[in-house]
Design brief:
It is a single chain. The protein is an alpha/beta fold. Helices cover 18% and strands 20% of the residues. The strands form seven sheets. The protein has a four-stranded mixed β-sheet with strand order 5-10-17-16, with helices on one face. A hairpin with a 6-residue loop joins strand 3 and strand 4. The radius of gyration is 25 Å and the shape is globular. The C terminus is likely disordered. Its EC number is 2.1.1.369.
Length: 355
Amino acid sequence: MATSIAEIMAVTAPVVDQAQDGGDVTVTRGVVVDRYGDVACEKCGSGEKGDELLLCDICDKGFHMRCLRPIVVRVPIGQWLCVDCSDPLPVRCMCLSQRKIMHFFRIEKFDVTEIPELSQEETIKHKRKSRPLTLTKRRRRLLPFVPSKDPNQRDAQLRTLASALTTLKMKYSNELTYIPGMAPRSANQSMFEIGGVQVLPKEDIETLEQCRAMHRVGGYPPLVVVEDQFQGFTVEADGPIKDLTLIAEYAGDVDYLKNRAKDDCDSIMTLLLSEDPSQSLVICPDKYGNISRFVSGINNHNRYGKKMQNCKCVRYSINGEVRVLIVATRDISKGERLYYDYNGYEHAYPTHHFL
């Protein structure tokens, strides 16, 4: 019989925090703490407030969080690059893009002066035949995840998740939770979303239900939670994952965005964007959550971040409620870390100085 996550959580101890000491260097989540005595901010020239001094991972230059523009209000998780080293995307040549498009669709250029003049009758006939070309792209169905066949491997995967949840003093939940004092379930209605939310098709609902059925019998996606000295807990594939695989539903407590304006949790996910900002909702996996809590976000403002993205968070209307699903955007190999775009749909989160 398959081991459940509840059984593993009951006997799992938290991960012991280890100091990341490299001789005379101490790093805590990207912030320099007593790193070097001569490190100074490149903006203000001061070396004071070392706990607020960020050090670029490429050029080793220091910057106070308050001296950066825009101001960095939270300590970045993982690698941090200064503006000079972030390598913005180059401006693409429009002519080259046009040539590629024309070549792909086999479009040939011609001189308008060489078009023969048509009679009135031929012109009318030509207009009748001219109809807009409509291309219909076949929608691709979401795929259910494929659990690892080896039961020992599955148990090892669950132990890594249980250890991470226990370390953060969280309880496992694969659903959205509505706690008294936060947002009620009645606030999560897709009709409140600005412009509406795409409805999850019937066949994809079947895929979601199939994944939930596997959860109930101890089947989970082939993923492990690993601890990185810079990024903290992250998620790696423990087996191949195909493109468009439904990896997990983003789970956690549902709360109003206004209540979390100053929250320092690094995994808050947008759930519902209402026309009334006071009614907008977020998912906060700080008390309850699943493996989605540990999937890393990437910086969508530089080429290196975008190359790392291999999954995305998509909001769907399911039975009139908004839910967030994590879906693979390409084939993922074993050992590859999972990354999604912070700004998957609203393009508003300031990630210029994030990995």
